[in-house]
Amino acid sequence: MKPDRKATLLLVATLLVAAFLTGCGKGNTVDSPGKSLIAFFKAMSDNNFTEAAKYIDMICQSNINLMYGSVANYLAQNNSPDSKYIASRIRIISQDIKGNEADVKFKLEGENKIVMIHMVKQDGVWRLPLDKYSGDLLIEPVR
Fold it and tell me: What is the distance between the alpha carbons of residues 143 and 6, in angstroms, rounded to a whole number?
């Protein structure tokens, strides 16, 4: 598998794992959706699953707490060993912010694909509403 395809698939897999996460987000000081996305992957790469959970949509947080009891434990069990690879290479291309919603386009350094993910702002924190994804993220070639 080519490195760029592997990285893209790994990113999608990581986001899907996070789709079942929960946790609380108050006290987070990240002020943009792109910075929140980077902070999520940095926390995952540092094995700081309590921090990573803060960037997950609050509805997803509630659902995972009901199903699994602890977001941090769930993240720890499902974290990819390649999360450091993603966290160190993610580059924000653009942020289209409309009120409390945003579309963030990003790519991994050295890759030829741009990925777009939708984010929502809840309690002053930009979060990943992963329950909205069916496994497909908008991926386009870099022009």
Answer: 20
